[in-house]
Amino acid sequence: MGASGGHPASGPGLIVRDRDDPVFGWRYWQLSSRRLLRSVTQREFEWPPGRVLRALCVEVGHPAPAERCNCGLYANPDLEALRQHGLCLAPEAIVLGQVALWGKVVDDEPSYRAEFAYPARLSLVVDSLIDEVSPEAMLEELSVYRVPVQAITLDEAVAGMSADMLRFQAMSRRTGGT
Ligand SMILES: [Zn+2]
Asked: Which of 32, 67, 110, 123 is the most buried (most CB within 10 A)?
């Protein structure tokens, strides 16, 4: 795109980061029948283990994310925003986690819409498991993403969080600058 008419190429709503210096966001996921992370809103959409997700604009077809569009990989900047705006459809199994976002990231309050994403840390909400799967077995399955996984309770997921998560959030804020 041209820098026409004095519009800056990147405004306050646009962040550009490298993969080794990502922005962290928060998301809910649910579990597909193959026990992979899947989108809460697009049930058929799985997050492939070991593969970086790249955003596509299905509606318009331009490079995603674009500023005045809905495209991009979504996450909320903090847990509070996720709780207010994130969709989390009990009674299905819920995974809460942080996701690394990089490339072009549009800060579209209350969400980030990113070009690239990969999970950074996952918390399985154990009391959201409704079938006979043991939390231990499920945590084992989630290890295919090769990121830290832990078990938390629904209370922690919606009202508070574990010390580990708090530490990680503090850390990612620090490395992420302000
Ligand atoms: Zn778009």
From this structure: 123
Q: Which residues touch 26 (CB under 8 Å, ≥6 apart)? A: 75, 76, 77, 78, 79, 81, 82, 86, 96, 97, 98, 99
Judged against a pLDDT cut of 50, whether residue 1 lies above it is answered with no
> Measured in angstroms, how far is the CA atom of residue 113 from the centroid of ligand 1?
10
Phi/psi at 166 (5° precision) = -60, -40
How many A from CA of 63 to the centre of ligand 1?
A: 7
- Each domain of the chain, given as residue ranges in start order, spans 14-175
Contact by Cβ (8 Å): 103, 114:
yes
The two three-digit tokens of residue 158, written as one number: 């919606």
Q: How far does residue 84's CA lie from ligand 1's centre (Å)?
A: 24
User: 94-108 and 23-31 as β-strands: parallel, antiparallel, unpaired?
Assistant: antiparallel
Is 60 exceeded by the pLDDT of residue 25?
Answer: yes
Q: Ligand 1: distance of its center to the CA of 65 in Å?
A: 6
Counting Cβ atoms within 10 Å, is residue 117 exposed (0-12), middle (13-18) or buried (19+)?
buried
- Residues ≥6 apart with Cβ < 8 Å to 67: 13, 14, 106
